[in-house]
Every structure is written in C-alpha cells, then in structure tokens.
Amino acid sequence: MKGIVWILAFLSCIGANAQSEDSAMMRKIADQVLSSPAAYENLRVLCKNVGARLAGSPGMLKAEAWGQKALEAAGADKVWLQECMVPNWNRGGKDEAWYSIKEGKNVKKTALDILALGNSMGTGAKGLLLPAILINDFNELEARQAEVKGKIVVFNNIFDPKNLNTFRSYMESGAYRRQGPSLAAKYGASAVLIRSITASTDNNPHTGGLLYDSAYPKIPAAAMGLKDADELIAQLRAGKEITIFYKSNAGFQPDAVGHNVIGELTGSEFPDRYITVGGHLDSWDPAEGAHDDGAGCVHSIEVLRALKAIGYKPRHTIKVVLFANEENGMRGGHKYADEARAKGEKHVFALESDAGGFTPRSFGFSLPKDKLRNIRAWVPLFEPYGVTQFADGGGGADIGPLRAALGTPIAGFNPDGARYFDLHHARNDVFENVNKRELDLGALNMALLIYMVDKYGL
Q1: Structural domains of the chain sorted by starting position, each given as residue range(s) with its CATH number in brackets
Q2: d(CA 50, CA 65)
C-alpha cells in the first residue's frame, strides 16, 4: 500500500513540475507575441497594400507575393508555393438596382444598395425589370410556386437574433444565399434578392458565395443592405405592386493559376510528421478582408514567428498554410489534402483561424472523444490568456479535406462572434476595424495550442 501511495505522489510531483514548465514556456510565448508589432503590421500591409484578393484576380497574385515575404521575414526554414487552379469569377463593375411603386399617376423610384452574390450570373447589359414577389421562407416558396414564374423573388431571410451562437444564425439564414437562387429558379423565377446575412444595424450589403444546382437555370442573385431590404419588404407586405430593376455584369472567366503559400519550421525529432496551422488568403472583393481572413493569415504567421523568435525547436514540422480560394471554390484546401494523401504524409494535427480577429473564447476540436478528454486537462493553462473551453466539434473549411483524406484531428480557433457578421463579406471589413490587442491574443492562443500539441501530441 505504501508503495502505491509513493508512486502516486511521485507521478503527481512529475505532473506538477511539467505544468510549471509549460506555464513558464507559455508566459515566454505570450511576452513575445504581446510585445511585438509583427501581426498587426503584417495585417496592415495585407489590407492597405494588397486589399481585396478574390481568387483569380490581380489582388490574388499580390497577396501570394505578400505571403511569401511575410513568412520569410517570420523566420520560416523554407517557403514555397503549391499550385492549384482556381475559379475566376468577376463582378464586372458596379451592381445596380432600384424598385418602383406606382401610386396613382405617379411612380416612385427607390435605390437599393446591393452586391451580386459570388459565383452568380449577370443579368445582361440591359438588366432586368420585373415584378417582385415576397417569399418569407422555403416552405412558402413551395406553397406559392405557381406565382414566382417570371418574377424577382425577394427572400425575407432573417438572421435570428435569439441564437446565442451567431454562426448558427449565419448557417440558417445563409441557406437562402446558398440554395435560394436555384430553388427559386426551379419554379421559373428570373432573379433573387436576399437580405444580407447579418444582424448589423447599417446598410452595407454582404456578398458571399451561392451554389447553383445544375438541374435548374442559373439566375442572377444579389444581397441587399438591411435598411433597404427592410423598407422594400415592408412595402411588399403592405400589398404594394412593386417592380424591381436589377443589373449585374458578373460572370466567370476561365480558371486561373493560384497557389497555397506554405512556410515551415522543420521538426527536430519527427521532421516527416506535420502540424498544420493556417487561414485563407483570398477575400471577397468589396473590402480588404481584414477579419475574413486576413486575421487568420497573420495569426498563423505569428505562430511561426513567435516560436522561432524564442528559440523553440519543434519536435514535429510545423507548416503554416495560407490557403487559396476558400471563399468560392475550396480549391486550395483540397489541393493541400490531395497532395498530402498522394505523398503518404503523416499529418498529426491541423488548426485553422477563420472567424475573425476578435477576443479569444475557445477552440473547437474534431477528434476522438478520449483524446478530447485528455487535452481538456490543458484548459487551466489557457485561461489566463482568454480561452476557457475546448469544445467538442470544430475545425475549418480549408482543413476539412485533410481530415476527410487522412483522418487528421483538426481544430478551429473561436473568438467572440458578436461582431463578426457585422463585417463579414461587406465593404466595412477593413483594417481599421481590427483591434491590435484582440488580434495578438488570438495569435498567442494559437501559438500556445501548437506548442502543447507539438510537445505532448494528442
């Protein structure tokens, strides 16, 4: 009995010493990140010198050059480009829309602030001038299918404020952006307008990708600013006969050559076992993509820079990947996974940041339950830095294919989501709306997680 007690005491002492050592190392990483201007300055250059960087655009090429330079400056042992073909959708200039209401002999025209949805087809040079019909949800679309032919469907898709998790509201309301145009086209609609996928109080329209169903015609689609959308919907609810004019020159050019930008710190013990950390380099065209996903890119670069700066020698090879084409094709994430599978690579973990540069809250993990139980013992070490939960379920769009191809455990960084969808895919997603302290705390927590996984595994 005494022997068992002694063994337990010995193991407890070892555990306490390891925790103390980890706490000291985490403090060292924190001091490095929080005292450095690197992440914020990297984001400033990406936003202000490169700007919008939609796949296939000149901005994409400028962003790739920025990423190479930033990873080299961060101290990567090597940096390279991984080629992949990317879609080349272009807005084709300014989108235009207005609606008219006939009141007696007078016709009142009201402008709409809109953005064509990503991947949508244009209207042609003359635009469309057609009657509008209000549809509140997909059930109503089904019930009134005979009424939508030859009309512009206006979806009253509400970003539900009652959901505590704003990403749930985004997924629910976003179904009208993703599937709405094809479902309306199924019954003969000529175009679709949606409320922007946001709970913002401003009138900035939010774009984002749609997914056409090849079984139905590809009709034009756009998102309206919320104030304009609410006014139009109120008029339609009041029974007014409304005609909408919509013009868009959007469309696709042939696929373009793009690249994942990859930098690595070579592992000292397991150089052929990889830990991936990344964000996506592309952004929609209305703004600078500061939070989506400039923040994720600089978070990931800062992980490498900070570990290198303090002299940390990783056991595994750490790869930082700035993924191509997350927004409207996912070609970069699939290319990375396909090449890893073809080469028989061993990927032990992947972490993505694609939820903005706001205050850290948690990480979400997709991995076996027993492994999640094990690493939850680390949470007290993270609490001083803002992360208070290791949640079950999470990851990211770009690293999802890696899990599907190789079974790699993945995780996503989860900052506070209250403000993210005020900016997401809109013209106000700019550098000035990123707070340096919040940005640095995100990079810090990601660096801490990579350090712990590198040291202990899962």
Answers
A1: 28-89+254-456 (3.40.630.10), 96-249 (3.50.30.30)
A2: 10
